[in-house]
Design goal:
Number of strands: 17
Mean pLDDT: 89
Helix content: 25-40%
Largest sheet: 11 strands, mixed
Number of helices: 14
Distance between the termini: 58 Å
Strand content: 15-25%
Number of domains: 2
Low-confidence stretches: none
């Protein structure tokens, strides 16, 4: 059954957390995830503290009540005394800070006059210190989508948490490779109109973050949270989305859950929930509040001057780069993927040089020709180098090999047996003579049947387009 989001009073926003591909935020350790075997082992218990307001955060109380111990494995190649909370943090990584400012400008946001890091109480053990450092970078940005403009109230820079690897009733164990990696958080306002709109907004934010060229790639390097409510319910935050495609399904399942609660006369609690593989959600903890925040005393404030902002280069958006490829006849989704893979400039250069080949044909050659050569001629795709594909494309562009012989030519190039003479084209006179003879021997066939006979006669050595032109002329 289709959900009428407007009549339900649906409100939703997304939070996107993206790891940066720089050194760690508060030390000079490399940002290595999945490091080697650990050579550092820690055992800690965390203490509950009040926030700046003097109050205790409800979510922190919930974690403290579990009275768990925390075990940590770390590698000296990716961790130092800062990660294990035995030494004060260093100044924030300049490259990460500049990337955060770049991000703010890409979202048209107002950068704050002075950056101040805060401590956010976290007692689930994911930070050895018992808190996460986070700083507000910019306010009041926006994102344009197919369903209107979406507000971006805040953009923050914070440190990534440790990765949970084992949990029991008595303890939870973490790996510290990930701890301290710079993380940009982009949060939208409650402007999303429906579940699919939430997916679109998350995807667009991810593309904009990728446009900086400073983000990590791969599973786990970007995470999405969704905040949503319906009329009569309460705001719920859902974490743990595996991919963008699951966002609409999880949202719809949560709406149905809240409707069941309201129909049964129950109160929908304000809480944090975890997205499950079947798109339902389960209770995680109470919703944290402002009581968990207090100033970071080890990191000095950072004034943001006009000179600093003017030195920040705003990169071209991936979507804008993709439009240049679309103008060459490339499908929009494929164009975005090519830009994300860093192949945009190469393709534009090739399209400029290989003027007799369409850009879409060049892309298809890179994507499918190695597989075709493996299937028909038994070469291993791993042995196909970019230079081999460029040679084949150049030969096809200069009509030195027919397009239908490109897989054969690629296999020969890889094996070192290529001879241009093996692909000598058919002269116009020879082609016209053969077509005439075929028409005389087998009158009354359709063009497709004649083309089959012509290609068979020349063993595939004649270009199909050229053969069809000769056939039309003769008929």
């Amino acid at each position: 059954m289709a959900i009428d989001y407007a009549s339900l009073g649906f409100k939703a926003g997304v939070e996107i957390h993206q790891q940066l591909d720089t050194r760690k935020l508060f030390c000079n350790c490399p940002s290595i995830v999945h490091d080697v075997e650990p050579d550092i082992h820690l055992h800690r218990k965390l203490r509950l503290v009040s926030g700046e307001s003097g109050q205790i955060d409800e979510a922190a109380l919930f974690e403290k009540a579990k009275e768990k111990e925390f075990l940590y494995d770390a590698c000296s190649t990716s961790c130092c005394l800062v990660e294990i909370d035995e030494e004060p943090v260093k100044l924030p990584n300049d490259e990460a800070l500049r990337t955060a400012l770049q991000t703010a400008l890409l979202f048209h946001a107002n950068v704050v006059d002075e950056i101040q890091f805060m401590r956010k109480t976290v007692l689930d053990g994911s930070n050895v210190s018992g808190f996460q450092r986070t700083a507000l970078i910019a306010l009041d940005g926006y994102l344009d989508t197919s369903k209107g403009r979406v507000s971006i109230p805040t953009i923050c820079l914070e440190e990534e948490s440790a990765k949970k690897i084992e949990t029991t009733k008595e303890y939870t164990k973490y790996r510290l490779d990930r701890l301290g990696i710079p993380l940009i958080e982009v949060a939208t306002g409650p402007d999303l109109k429906d579940a699919e709109h939430a997916r679109e907004a998350a995807e667009k934010i991810g593309l904009i973050l990728r446009s900086t060229g400073k983000v990590k790639r791969g599973i786990g390097t970007i995470r999405q949270d969704v905040n949503l409510s319906i009329q009569g319910g309460n705001r719920v935050e859902i974490k743990g989305f595996q991919d963008l495609r699951s966002i609409p399904k999880v949202i719809d399942c949560e709406i149905e859950r809240q409707l069941r609660e309201l129909k049964a006369g129950k109160k929908v609690e304000k809480e944090v929930r975890k997205a499950e593989p079947d798109f339902t959600s389960s209770y995680l903890r109470p919703m944290p509040g402002a009581a968990r925040m207090y100033p970071e005393t080890d990191v000095p404030t950072i004034p943001i001057t006009k000179e600093m902002l003017s030195s920040i280069e705003v990169p071209e958006l991936i979507e804008d780069q993709a439009k240049e490829l679309e103008a060459l006849g490339i499908d929009s989704k494929l164009a975005i993927n090519l830009v994300k893979e860093g192949k945009s400039e190469m393709l534009k250069n090739l399209a400029g040089k290989l003027k007799n080949l369409k850009a879409s044909f060049i892309v298809d050659t890179f994507n499918s020709l190695p597989g075709a050569a493996k299937k028909d001629f038994g070469i291993e795709e791993a042995h196909v180098k970019e230079e081999h594909l460029l040679q084949v494309l150049t030969l096809a562009n200069e009509d030195k090999i027919p397009k239908n012989q490109m897989a054969r030519a690629l296999a020969a190039l890889v094996n070192g047996t290529f001879k241009e003479s093996d692909y000598a084209g058919v002269s116009d006179t020879e082609l016209e003579k053969a077509v005439k003879e075929i028409l005389e021997k087998a009158p009354g066939l359709n063009p497709g049947a004649y083309m089959g006979l012509i290609m068979k006669h020349f063993g595939g050595k004649v270009d199909g387009k050229k053969a069809m032109e000769a056939l039309k002329k003769a008929m």
